[in-house]
Amino acid sequence: MASGDVTPADDTALAPLRVVIAEDDALLREGIASLLRDAGHQVVGTAADAPTLMLKIRSYVPDVAILDLRMPPGDVDAGLVAASEIRRFHPTVSVLVLSQHLEPAYMLELVGDNASGVGYLLKERVGDVRGFVDSVERVAAGGTALDRSVVAELVHAREGGGDAFADLTPREREVIELMAEGKTNAAIARAMVVQPGAVEKHISSIFNKLDLPATDDDHRRVLAVLAFLRSA
């Protein structure tokens, strides 16, 4: 892969992350904090509502903020509003939003025009501890972690229609869906039961078809995911 393509790696040693967690359910909040500490990361602040979350963000400027989509005040989309504010005013802070239900429109609003350092997962994914911690680490590193159920719903909604991905083969579409979930090349190969070299060829073809040439500045993997979401 070209030097400008940032591909997440498996089993890469990371420095401990500084994390802020915002969740009004105290049990879930402390559970997430505990499993992140067990994984070697530092929870620098917790919050039960959006105003307290923003105070903790300003005070600690963490590597990543993990927050509930619906939290006080309002319990409608206060978390989404806070996430958008973090992404706008604190661009060094990556954001992982947790949601109780499938809400693709909210995910697309969260991603906006920048798919780097952002995640959107259903809360049930926290139960897969290794997978959840991997998602947190991937988002903190500037990658994406989009829930497979939401990605599948977006793909289903687009089936039968024309879009910028019309030239992609079925295998290439499968690859980019897995990329949108944030999977590494090795994980994609395992999911598709193919060799990693085959995945690399598919990704290279996707980049070419989407006219995403290699540069030192653009992370083509993230740009490809963004193009995928925009085509929904």
Looking at this structure, what is the CATH superfamily of the largest domain? Answer: Response regulator
Specify the helix fraction band: 40-55%
In total, the number of strands is 6
CATH hierarchy class name of the largest domain? Alpha Beta
| Strand composition percent | 5-15%
What general outline do the C-alpha atoms trace?
Answer: globular
Radius of gyration, taken over Cα atoms and rounded to an integer in Å: 17 Å
End-to-end CA span? 27 Å
List the helices and strands and how they pair.
Elements: E1 18-22, H1 26-38, E2 42-47, H2 50-60, E3 64-68, H3 78-89, E4 94-99, H4 104-111, E5 118-122, H5 129-140, E6 144-146, H6 148-158, H7 170-180, H8 185-192, H9 196-209, H10 220-230
Parallel strand pairs: 1-2, 1-3, 3-4, 4-5, 5-6
How would you summarize what this structure contains?
The protein has helices spanning 26-38, 50-60, 78-89, 104-111, 129-140, 148-158, 170-180, 185-192, 196-209, 220-230; strands at residues 18-22, 42-47, 64-68, 94-99, 118-122, 144-146. It has 232 residues and is of the alpha/beta class.
Give your account of this protein's structure:
By secondary structure, this protein is an alpha/beta fold. It folds into two domains: 133 residues, 3-Layer(aba) Sandwich (Rossmann fold), CATH 3.40.50.2300; 68 residues, Winged helix-like DNA-binding domain superfamily/Winged helix DNA-binding domain (Arc Repressor Mutant, subunit A, Orthogonal Bundle). It is 48% helix and 13% strand. The chain contains ten helices and six strands. The longest helix has 14 residues. It starts with 17 loop residues before the first strand and ends with a helix. The N terminus is likely disordered.
